[in-house]
Amino acid sequence: MMQTRDIFQAIADPTRRQIIGMLAQKSLNVNAIAQEFDITRQAVSLHVQYLDDCGLIVIKKQGRERYCEAKLEKLSEVTDWVDQYRKFCDNKLDSLESYLAKIKQKG
Hints:
The chain has 5 helices and 3 strands. By secondary structure, it is of the alpha+beta class. Strands 1-3-2 form a 3-stranded antiparallel β-sheet. The chain is elongated, with a radius of gyration of 21 Å.
């Protein structure tokens, strides 16, 4: 059974963010990904598995190789979450601007 992982924890790790960035450019096998890092291939495999569990990448077999591809649509969960707070912050800034404009008019 596939374990569902938290997408926010997935992108919190700099190595996983870098892997997503690499795979957004092109499909790569785990060995090609591992060559870009100063950590073991096993550690890279664990990061890749985490991203696969989250649905941020998909692993496809081609012969004996396993190629990883980014599935960036899944990041919409993060974007939606951030957007709700961006709107909140924008509203607070608009209120502050209005308040400062009123003070300026009185002065």
